[in-house]
Amino acid sequence: MMEPKEFGLNDVVEMKKQHPCGTNRWKIIRMGMDIRIKCEGCGHSVMIPRREFSRKMKKVLVKHEE
């Protein structure tokens, strides 16, 4: 059984596909119906629907401490 993927604001996550710039570290900078993530390598940010994000995310690399 797979545990639910827990992610929160300011967490650094790894996506299944890496960014064209060569990095696969993304920081969650906005959460809502859509999730905005920012590439840690080049600073490019993308907005993706939450469902799509959950599907494309591989794992949380750095958990943001409250």
From TrEMBL:
This is DUF951 domain-containing protein. It comes from Heyndrickxia sporothermodurans. InterPro entries: DUF951. It comes from the Bacteria.
